[in-house]
Amino acid sequence: MTPLFARMTVAGVGLIGGSLAAAARRAGLAGEVVGFGRSGANLALARARGLVDRTTDDPAVAAAGAELIVLAAPVGALAALAAQLGPHAAPGTLLTDVGSVKGTLVAALEAAWQDRGPVVGAHPLAGSEAAGAGAARADLFVGRRCILTPTKRTDPAALARVRALWEGVGARVEEMAPAAHDALLARISHLPHLLAYALVTAAAGAAVDGRAVLDYAAAGFLDTTRIAASRGELWRDILLANAPALADALAEFRAALAHLERLVAAGAAEPLLAALEAAAAARRALEGRR
């Protein structure tokens, strides 16, 4: 069977990039998968785990002969990474990404790649607080949603090929405008991460009767703040890149928190119970949809 891409280069062989590389290899979607990055140790691990066929830290080698280049580094580095690889890519090379922010990023990638080939923005809604090639796994995207964010400049044939890639690794693909993506992700991903970091920050500096608060952290605190163990570099870039949509999400959260705070302060037992039960029902419904 002819692969979807004769050669696919993944720039950033971490959790998402490494998982996509492994999944594409397993599904026969790429004739050869090349891993590109700056960490020799991570590239060596990617080779040892069989995530990729070969690796390089040379952008010329990474881009040479690639039909598809996937940018899987932190969001803040992707436009510069595209500019680094672009001069070495053949005309017509398809560029895509896995970034958690799409509006400003896709526009920057289209500008950086305009003389090279088509650009298709993509974001798989999968992952964890783990990082690096050691966390990658070929089944990460099975049954998970992947959002494609075409613009007026998106080539339909390129969009179809990127869709086929994600469907080929088991993802459920849908399309939406970059701005809609960013507004959604601000509320269901970026805000929760910011809140988790804030909770840990508040507790880390607190003490009660001479006892460090974090020494008593148990399941509730650990479950709520699990994602605060994520890489700071990654989330710094995401939060800054999606600042306007995040500001709207924060305003909505402050309003919800203020409402609960007023109920607690007023001793309003029945309204507080109703609010908590409504939230609990909404949370339980999420489990039913997963």
What this model shows, in words?
The protein has helices spanning about 15-25, 40-50, 60-65, 80-85, 105-110, 155-170, 180-205, 220-225, 230-240, 245-265, 270-290; strands spanning about 5-10, 30-35, 55, 70, 95, 120, 120-125, 145-150, 170-175, 205-210, 210. The protein has about 290 residues and is α/β, with parallel strands linked by helices. The protein has two domains: about 5-175, Rossmann fold, CATH 3.40.50; about 180-290, 6-phosphogluconate dehydrogenase C-terminal like domain (6-phosphogluconate dehydrogenase C-terminal fold, Orthogonal Bundle), CATH 1.10.3660. The strands form three sheets. It has a six-stranded parallel β-sheet with strand order 3-2-1-4-5-6, with helices on both faces. A three-stranded mixed β-sheet has the order 7-8-9, with helices on one face. Helix 4 (about 80-85) runs parallel beside helix 5 (about 105-110) and helix 7 crosses helix 10 (about 245-265). The two termini are about 35 Å apart.
Helical element count?
Answer: 11
Give the count of structural domains.
Answer: 2
Radius of gyration: 21 Å
Main beta-sheet annotation: 6 strands, parallel
**What is the helix content?**
40-55%
What structural class should be given to the helix and strand makeup? alpha/beta
Q: How many β-strands, per DSSP?
A: 11
Uncertain runs are: none
